[in-house]
Amino acid sequence: MARLAPFARLPRPLRWAARVLTVILVLAVVAAGFATFTIRRSFPRLDGEIALAGLSAPVTVHRDRYGVPHIYADTTDDLFRAQGYVHAQDRFWEMDFRRKTTAGRLSELFGASTLDVDKVVRTLGWRRVAERELPLLAPETRRALDAYAAGVNAWLAQHEGAWDKSLEYAVLKLINGSYAPEPWTPVDSLAWLKAMAWDLRSNVASELERAIDASRLPADRVAQLFPGYPYDRNAVIVPGAPASGDGGKAATASVRAARPIAGNALEGAVRALRAVPGPLGGAETDRAGIGSNSWVVSGRHTATGRPLLANDPHLGPTLPSIWYQAGLHCRRAGPACPFDVVGYTFSGLPGVVIGHNARIAWGFTNLGPDVTDLYVERVKGDAYQVGGEWRPMEVRRERINVAGGKPVDLVVRSTRHGPIISEVLDDARSALRGAVGADEGGVGHALALRWTALDPGRTGDAIMLLNTARNWEDFRRAAERFESPAQNMIYADVDGNIGYQAPGRIPVRAKGDGRSPVPGWTGDSEWTGFIPFEKLPSVYNPPEGFIVTANNAVTAEDAGPFITADWAYGYRAQRITDRLKQAIARGRVTADTMADIQRDSANTFAPVLMPYLLKVPFPDGEFGTALREVASGWDFDQGRDSAGAAYYNAVWRHLLKRVFDDEIPEGARAGGGDRWFEVMRSLLTRPDDRFWDDVRTTGKMETRDDMLAAASRDAQDELRERLGDDPAEWRWGDLHTLTLTHQSLGTSGIAPIEWLFNHAPLRLAGGKDAVNATGWNSAEGYEVDHVPSMRMIVDLADLDASRWINLTGASGHAFHTNYTDQADLWADGRTIPMRHTERAVRADAVTTLTLTPR
Q1: Max Cα separation, the chain?
Q2: By the 8 A CB rule, do 560 and 488 touch?
Q3: What gap in Å lies between CA 235 and CA 845, rounded to an integer?
Q4: For strand 354-357 and strand 340-345, is the pairing parallel, antiparallel, or unpaired?
Q5: Neighbouring residues of 480: CB distance < 8 A, sequence distance ≥ 6
Q6: CA-based angle 648:637:685, to the nearest 5?
Q7: How far apart are CA 416 and CA 751, in angstroms?
Q8: What is the pLDDT of residues 215-268, one digit of tens each?
Q9: Residue 390 — left, alpha, or beta (φ > 0 → left; ψ -120 to 50 → alpha)?
């Protein structure tokens, strides 16, 4: 999420009062007697009976020691009504915050500090699209949404006071006493799918980066920064496709096409897009961090003779976690009530997003198709050029209510390609005017965003269909409706089958490849349709006996329809593939094998770079000897107690800064992920390449060895200052930390509030584009900004033997036992039981709540 400072821009008297009252509140809360009354007052009741209006029969909710609920009902309506109630018990603040985000109404909570977020979201119109989606959905999906909303609203009616809801509402009451949550609606649920699509929207950041780089560098040098996928070294998802690449030629051509419309000011457009919140967590500064791993192994290679499926989506860290674990069970599963599913849900949305039912299991990674294009429009007043004529724009006015201030009116203008985003923030507007030429005759320029998720779709149907699918055909019918965000979908069933399907609305372009912004007035680069579902890549029971997806290329570039040119570069996918082949060669794969691969923290580019670093002169004396021992003895594993990983990653960070910061503008700086692995791999073989030279120095032309030596010195200086003078005592986990931060109040800027809601830093293993993908941005520091947001291993031979873990915990209530009780387990790479059968659920249950008809 973009950084929120809820108190920062309130009017001065209110801001001062808020700080004073907040300190008073915290002092009161920490007093032992008052703490029990205030904080625990909003904790949900998990035992006994509660009346829930609208139920047709009692519903039972069993929870284990981690607070994970399994809900048992007689009808589908009762099941989803209870799910809405249970979500609200644990996570209503999160749900309310999410719907305010997706509606562009955060300023009603936090005042002017979130006004920019609201402006951009209103411009994109997430909620408006969700409103258009609702009538397109199947009747059973709409009924589930209605029942879910009724359950949420029943909880809301029982908890009218601020202290009754959660500690967040009590804090908010002090600065915004008039705020009261509105009833939940089905559109509130659907709008969250737009937020999910935004976070997984593919390559628009790369599109802008190419344009920014093209404003400073020749096309051939920009192409060096966007190398082609290494088909000769790294795996594709659908095996057997011909391994061929273009060597970056298409990228070079795309950059050349972009040069007439690219300028220095496009950096402002990057800043504009980064002002949009990342609803699934994390900063907008490095979109390449969004990834995921999933793989499935057939029973031919497992100890049980049945498939194993693993999944760990990589998203920004939030507190509470993005995910909410749950089981949804019809007591007598059948056509009238077909749900018997366990997995990860989104609070605010009915059903299970990732998980398994009694017959099949499924997982997701981001397919990353190119579903966004940026069009530079010629504009004059409220008209824009199409060919030789001027057409009126669609213009609408939005009013944003601001807590503690006056309402703000926003004018949103759209062309045939979509909303104009360059008018949201002044930097972007002025930037684009300079980017494509000065105004002549009243004609200016604006940037419009074309994005598939701004067209209403049926992803809500897909979730319901996945939950009740019983075989491969059912699974593919569900996938066909998973339109946005498009995901790599893996599959396994209890009969022993495995499969993969790429879904989504992926555009077909009349011209170009979507890699760079294009002129919107020519009509040359329009979308002519979408790839038919039957032509999207799919595989069922491949001869290899396993399928690996990790945001890598689905097929070779000349196999199948064009999906994108901006894949991840396959380092994680190849490492998983290698580990699986090794395990298969040694014997049968087990669930422990899958878990060990999920924890794999190896840096698979380090074996390429380290031989060059070991040739760099080390300092004389005891320090230099110790440093050489650390560097030469490193096994490329990035464990949190590894000294070698600390040294290597520090050198890597400083090397990227020294090599590229002198020529690449700030909006496109090196983030350190696997694209930069490929860029550096090529540069290392050319010691006199122009990128090695620091253009800021005069009278000297730096070479590869000069930069390696300088980066090593930088790293030594930094690590000695931060970690001490003994390299053997350096620890990667002392640099590579994660502070679990409350998504809204955790960045308030008021220390006592942040203490209430945030979790102490975790020392982590792993790194950027390791399988254990604890991502960090080398342009900013070593702190973790993307994580495996959960880990799941499904055993199709014995579903009760499946394992899972969440980043934080089930509860969204600060100080609750289940608020962060999974965090340390997650950091250690451990998991907890993922039960499915009622017998196993009852055996693990520590509380039982009965929801009764009123």
Answers
A1: 84
A2: no
A3: 43
A4: antiparallel
A5: 462, 503, 533
A6: 50
A7: 47
A8: 889 999 999 999 999 999 999 999 764 333 343 444 444 444 444 443 433 544
A9: beta
